Amino acid sequence: MSGDVIVQQLVNGITLGGLYALIALGYTLVYGIMLMINFAHSEMFMAGGYVGLFVLKALTNEAWVGAGTVGFFTGGVFGLIVLFLIVFLSAAILVGILGVVIERFAYRPLRHAPRLAPLISAIGVSIFLQNAVLLWVDSKALPFPAVMPVVTVFKAGGVTVNSLQILILVTTLLLLAFLDTFVSKTRIGKAMRATSQDRDAAGLMGIDINQVIGLAFFIGPALGGIAGVFHGMYYGSVKFDMGFLPGMKSFTAAVIGGIGNLRGAMLGGFVLGILESLAAGFLSAGYKDVVAFAILILVLIFRPGGLLGESVVEKV
Amino acid sequence: MLKVENLHTHYGQIEALKGISLEVNDGEIVTLIGANGAGKSTTLKTISGQLAPTQGTVSLDGEIVSGLLAHKVTEKGIIQVPEGRRIFPRMTVAENLEMGAFLRKDAEGIKEDLEQVFTLFPRLKERINQKGGTLSGGEQQMLAMGRGIMARPKLLMLDEPSMGLAPVVVETIFEIIERLNKEGITILLVEQNAAMALSVAHRGYVLEVGSIALEGPGKELLHNEQVRKTYLGES
Ligand SMILES: Nc1ncnc2c1ncn2[C@@H]1O[C@H](COP(=O)(O)OP(=O)(O)O)[C@@H](O)[C@H]1O
Ligand SMILES: [Mg+2]
């Protein structure tokens, strides 16, 4: 096992960890406010992959937008940046709206029901969305067009870092920093924290709880949707069941970090991505899922509250 | 100012309020006393919109507010300081107070009220950057009241502010209640500490298992034989 392999796996792990962190935030945000695990969140990730794919295809289809537009988008760096901004924004916004709609119709009517009810409803939403894609889109994996040339940005010995990895990492870090600032500094972000710490008291402050819940159900899925687009680009395809494993892993990341805790979800995502990739390098690729869930078990045994459990760092 | 008429509130099948009527006039301190489980908190929660009444109305200055959600009632100026303080444990003292002023836009007024809170409770100023959850019980009560003051309430409803506090702290809290009232805040005070509550209140109501059993001026109730026996522990 050479040093190069370790470094390469670290690079891969950080990239993967960024995706886990983005998805994990959605689990933890919703849990922090609703004390509910949104099992449909993995399908927000999947939906993001599909929205990204369709928007990308539409915008690079000459029959739809004209040759000139396609030329602009694919002809140079500036065009590509604009193209990707549009792709990511549409995935974030549409999936965010999907999240809000799901909350409104599948969870809100069950708000005062026993806690198992919304969980079951979430599983139902998850199955529904997977089957909707299976039926109405395709049961096979759809290739994600490699519109952006993936170039090697850095190469030393056996270690390479490509432009897509850098794009994923930089975007992820920017989003994490943005969210962190949002909840600690803005009025509505503070309202979210207050609601997650004591929902009834937050209502007494004049905070509209439904608005806060709606916002959590927009932001979480929006971030998950962005992760879905990255995943499609990184692995080259999207499929109706693509959310399952990343969803499980990211939920694990959220629990490892301390569910309900935003920074914990970020940390948990990176820890999981890195350890999993190292395991793939050291042992064999087949062990990475085993390692991921073994870490979950260890954390649950030795730090049941997660790495950044309640008392250490702030929840949502 | 506040008028509660024939209020009924249920928890599922259990009827916790069985037709309560009470009134709080501008500038008064009115107290609602009663044994544990009598329905005092339920009354406040129904007024503040945390619970929906099954019958009856709550109105503020003639406008019906029952049926509104809690944040809408807060908007009308009815501010509840809940039982058990319910401060935000992982927010700082400053942030907790800021949440109290959540609906306000007048930066100047907010600043003035913050100064006033710090004048009333100098301890809070010393602990301004401390997380709410790390404060002592008395400090948390001060924070909960300060947070209520930050909303610039028309009507401030306090649910058992003396609960679990050392006697000296209880003294302080009651002094502050009287002081706030002198500065023009109308107060509805729920207490199990009937002696203290009746001595500061202009008027009082005695609640017994979901119904009003007695009402009258504070001093009068304080000397009422039945009240003395039941709530002041005399025989
Ligand atoms: N969430 C609840 N669910 C069911 N019953 C409740 C609930 N809260 C209070 N009660 C019942 O309603 C009655 C009044 O309670 P409460 O208003 O809290 O009394 P108090 O504040 O005077 O001690 C009690 O019998 C109590 O057991
Ligand atoms: Mg009570």
Describe the protein.
The complex is a heterodimer of chains A (316) and B (235). Chain A has a single domain, classed as ABC transporter involved in vitamin B12 uptake, BtuC (Orthogonal Bundle). In chain A, 74% of the residues lie in helices and 4% in strands. Chain A has 13 helices and four strands. Chain A has a two-stranded antiparallel ribbon with strand order 1-4. A two-stranded antiparallel sheet of chain A has the order 2-3. The termini of chain A are far apart. The model of chain A is unreliable at 311-316 (pLDDT under 50). Chain B is of the alpha/beta class. The model of chain B has no long low-confidence stretch (mean pLDDT 95). Residues 40-41, 83, 160 of chain B line the site of magnesium ion. Adenosine-5'-diphosphate (ADP) binds at residues 11, 14, 16, 34, 36-42 of chain B.
Entry summary:
The complex is a heterodimer of chains A (316) and B (235). Chain A has 316 residues and is mainly α.
